[in-house]
Amino acid sequence: MAKNKKTITKKPSVNKKSAKRPVSRSVVANKTSVKASELETPKASLNLENASTGFKIEKYRVVGLVLIFIVFLFFIANKNRNLFFAATVNGRPITRLELDQRMVSRYGQATTEEIISEVLIRDEANKKGLKVTAAEVDTKIAEITKNIGANGNLVDLLAQQGMTMTDLRSQIELQLLVEKLTVGLVNVSDREVTDYLDKNRSSFSATSEAELRTEAMDSLVSQKRGESLQKWFNDLKSKAKITKYL
To answer: Looking at 79, 113, 144, which one is the last position of a domain?
Structure first.
């Protein structure tokens, strides 16, 4: 009789080390990243708050500078009203810009030509080393004052024409420069004086022959000088480089 063999089922051996659940590296990484993010979040928010605060300070600073600038302009405008306004009518201001635009539209071309002429003459005089002294100007002013007479006032007469003594001195200086630049430009012969005197004797106030010839000479020189000066100036202007923007 066969003996009953006892069947022994072998239990699989369990490795205690392997029984532990392995920890995934991704989990560790996630934990690490989470912790890192938790640590960095307060820093980031702090930086944003600092940036926001800095922006607000800078904004207030700019606004403050603008306000200071506006107050400064108001102070300047109030103290120097004539720099910005020509007049006010019933509270309505007439600005300098409005006045300038009106003046330029009416007198701009003529005034520009006048200034161009002055610059050309002075430049030509500088090239040739010609100057006019204050004494020469004073002599001319004395002649003008003498012609006005005791009852006249030169300053008042100038004011009526919108001029000052400074304007007059400038004009006289310019005229004297032209005379020096055009010395010898006009020549009048004795024969021309005689012919001119014979034709216009009745128009002269002198009585003696010498004075008549002197008066005729001055009249002839003035007449021919006007024609010669125009030609001289046209030649001077044609050689200059002039650009107009009006």
So the answer is: 79
